[in-house]
Amino acid sequence: MNSADQIRKIIEHQLEIADIDRSPEMLYSPIRYALGSGGKRMRPVLTLLSCEAFSDQWQSALNAAMAIEIFHNFTLLHDDIMDNSSMRRGQPTVHCRWNDNTAILSGDAMLILSYEILARSNPELIVKLLPIFTRVALEVCEGQQLDMDFESCEEVSLENYIEMIRLKTGVLLAGAVQLGALCGGASDKDAELMYEFGVNLGLLFQITDDILDTYGDPKVFGKSIGGDILCRKKTFLLVSALQNATEQQRDRLCKLLEDESLAAAEKIAAVTAIYDEFNIRQVAEQASDKYFRLAMEALEQVSLDKNRKSELAEYATKIRYREK
Amino acid sequence: MNSADQIRKIIEHQLEIADIDRSPEMLYSPIRYALGSGGKRMRPVLTLLSCEAFSDQWQSALNAAMAIEIFHNFTLLHDDIMDNSSMRRGQPTVHCRWNDNTAILSGDAMLILSYEILARSNPELIVKLLPIFTRVALEVCEGQQLDMDFESCEEVSLENYIEMIRLKTGVLLAGAVQLGALCGGASDKDAELMYEFGVNLGLLFQITDDILDTYGDPKVFGKSIGGDILCRKKTFLLVSALQNATEQQRDRLCKLLEDESLAAAEKIAAVTAIYDEFNIRQVAEQASDKYFRLAMEALEQVSLDKNRKSELAEYATKIRYREK
């Protein structure tokens, strides 16, 4: 059995040798740029680890893993246009380095490429994987739409926020794990438990992201701290704070977030101070713990020996306690 | 056997009852808007006619036909952003009626929906249809990229132009026909001949489009005449004219196209006059005839009784001699 680190190297290598050296150059070079810019490769690693839990042949899940990773990177290309983000993984985003049209069309091609690679799986698998991959892909779009809808919403309930991140982030991790399990020969029931494991992992991943954006160690996190506060993003922290606040406190928080005269560092410090008043960090850590527990409970129910699930459990623990 | 008109009504009905009444509303209502705005439905009509040539069960090609039509409409959503087009089929385009982000994300969802619907085909068919659909989809993106590349190209050869429209327009018609044939139980060889029929139909369709944009009857054509000239689009007419012109004539034509001081009607008349000098209309009609002949030759080679191919032959003739 391979460790997550070994699996990650396999993924990087497969991305390097993927046959995307095609023409026209202006369509495919942004794709190579996007796929070559690193990242955690968390989703394909989960696919292969999940496959290896059920079978010794991680190779049978390789196409599914690549399809998931290429799909994920397609969403980043288009999300970066929609959110007008200029940097990703320390590099200019595709729409900034080239232009919006390039990012739209190369993104489209990546989405299709993800299907091209999925379709290389063996025929019996294709018929099982295709509807799952497609449902998840559509749900990711639905999640992105909800996220954009929330921007212009005054109030978002914690329940709606969780539903949004379930769609935007959770289901793709869940699908990654489920596809891997099916490629490894898991029963439908076990594959569904693996989906449950993955979706909860996705939720805690996103909540941890929200925590780190405000409370992370800038030296470790790799991005500057407070970005979510500055762009008034509806995160787990903000949504929780607004939900717990009195009307007066809510007004204070909203005015603070909208105050254009405040320097960035001051605004971040002031909003964080309000979060601290409400113990929001602890609330978020508890939510993260809850989803971690749910993930582990799903994994425990999978009908495999414990030692076959240890790499997945360890990887999930790493995701829970990550600092970057 | 159904006539093309009957088939078109079947398609319209299927689009009306397609289950795209989903949430979030902001994601799916632009999709319903785009799919409900009419159009010739040429591609899905070809899919069902092609299926009916081989079998009496057009129903078995319905999912493929819908997938092709939804895919085609996805390309229109994104192309309209890239080309900054404000009107389509007499209605505001999605990115104008809503905004760019909506058109990007709803377009993405349509692309995925096209796979969702294709995946409803029976399992043996899916495995055959999926790689063809996917290859064609990717080639359409490649064609769109070439079309955009040509905008900043001073010289485009007629050969490169034909390759661009083969990818951008031809292969999707070809795929529509090939998928229909396979759904109808055609042999791989017949399905490939049907592809040949479709790709040539696509080429003549696009060249006819170019002719009509300059030489169409404004009362019949439905769009104003001369749009391609005003936006200096590299069409069959312009590429042929530039190819046949002396250096002096080419300079005259380019200066005319770039002249911002000329009124629209004057510019259109002047450029058309140059086209007439070179007999460009006849050159284009001859090219259209050539591809029509190639399409018919491919259709004739298909191992079916002539009467089973008559609807397709008639439909191709309609496309060749269309005035709108």
Please tell me about this protein's structure.
The structure is a homodimer of 324-residue chains. Chain A has helices at 4-17, 25-35, 42-54, 62-82, 94-97, 100-118, 123-151, 158-183, 188-215, 218-221, 227-230, 236-244, 247-258, 264-277, 280-301, 310-320, and strands at 87-88, 91-92. Chain A is an all-alpha fold. In chain A, strands 1-2 form a two-stranded antiparallel sheet. The model of chain A has no long low-confidence stretch (mean pLDDT 96).
Summarize the SSE layout with pairings.
The structure is a homodimer of 324-residue chains.
Chain A: H1 4-17, H2 25-35, H3 42-54, H4 62-82, E1 87-88, E2 91-92, H5 94-97, H6 100-118, H7 123-151, H8 158-183, H9 188-215, H10 218-221, H11 227-230, H12 236-244, H13 247-258, H14 264-277, H15 280-301, H16 310-320
Based on CA atoms alone, the radius of gyration of chain A comes out at: 20 Å
Give the number of helices of chain A. 16
Main interface: chain pair and counts: A-B, 37 and 37 residues
| Sheet having the most strands of chain A | 2 strands, antiparallel
Q: SSE order of chain A in H/E notation? A: HHHHEEHHHHHHHHHHHH
How many individual β-strands of chain A?
Answer: 2
Helix content of chain A: over 70%
In short:
2 copies of one chain form a homodimer. Chain A has 324 residues and is mainly α. The first copy, chain A, is built from 16 helices and 2 strands.
Key words describing this protein structure:
two-stranded antiparallel sheet; 2 strands; mainly alpha; 16 helices; 324 residues
